Structure formats: C-alpha cells, structure tokens
Amino acid sequence: MITMTVNGKPAEIAVDERESLADTLRKRLGLTSVKKGCEVGECGACTVLVDGEAIDSCIYLAVWAEGRSILTVEGLRGPAGELDPIQQAFVEEAAVQCGFCTPGLIMSAVEIVGSGKKYTRDELRKLISGHLCRCTGYQNILNALERIVNETHKVVGK
C-alpha cells in the first residue's frame, strides 16, 4: 500500500513494487492524461509533477511516490472546470494537434512557469528537449510557452 496526494486529493493504493507510477495513475486512478509512449523515459508523454518537479512517470516506480504530491493535467482544472492559463495558451497558439504529447508538455510548462523565471526562446527549447512531438514542429508549442512564461499568472490547479 502506498499513500500519496494526487491532484490535491489523498489516495491510498495497493501497488506491485515493480509497477510504474504511469501505470498506477492510468490503470488504477483513471488519469488518462498520463500517456505511455516510449516507456523508457525518452519521449516525455508520461510527464507528471512529483512534489513540483517534472518526472517521467513511466520509469518512476509507484512505491517511490509514497508520501508525495502528484499533479497531472486533470489536476489543473479550475473549480468550474475552466482551463489553466497554460492549457489556454496551448489552445490559443494552436500548440495542439493529435494531443498525445500535449499533457506531458503542459506538465513541464507548469514546472517552468512555477519557477518564476523568465526564459528566452532558446532556453525554452532546451527545457522541452525531452519531449517528442511528431505533429506540431514545436514552433506553436514554443509560442505558447514563450507567451505564458512572459505573463504573470497563477496556475489554476495549484
């Protein structure tokens, strides 16, 4: 049994000691924003925040989440279901096509914005270099990130 906080709510779950956090979140908690792409920590589709830090949940064991706070895209919704400003920037900048990589990129963006630092476009490019996207060509994703890091806002789910 592990106890953790997921999207602001306590969760106690029986897990196999070999189970990834991605599997726990998807299969046991139904949080399907957590995508399984490469399953070796190279594509970024499974990115979630653990205690505010972006991690590849496919290579992070669920047992390591004991006592930790996990945030997924589902946890970004506002009280009335509204999109987080980061999600809204992705929509407005057309940074979403098939959507497979989008949740992981958004979670990395939450960490980036949460740092409170301003970044250049080149710095943002490096910060998302662990994410693979086959649809967008990254330009619109960078537009969304550039826009959101230069705006002052509060992440809805935090």
What is the strand and helix layout of this fold?
Layout: E1 2-6, E2 9-13, H1 21-28, E3 47-50, E4 53-56, E5 69-71, H2 85-92, H3 102-114, H4 121-127, H5 139-149
Parallel strand pairs: 1-5
Antiparallel strand pairs: 1-2, 3-4, 3-5
Helix pairs in contact: 2-5, 3-5
Number of helices: 5
In round numbers, the mean pLDDT is 93
What structural class do helix, strand and pairing data support?
Answer: alpha+beta
The backbone outline, from C-alpha atoms, is: globular
List low-confidence stretches. none
Using DSSP, what is the number of strands? 5
Rg, rounded, reads 15 Å
Strand and helix order = EEHEEEHHHH
Query: Mind summarizing the main beta sheet?
Result: 5 strands, mixed
Biggest sheet strand line-up = 2-1-5-3-4
Describe it for me?
- By secondary structure, this protein is α+β, with helices and mostly antiparallel strands.
- The chain is about 30% helix and about 15% strand.
- It has a five-stranded mixed β-sheet, with helices on both faces.
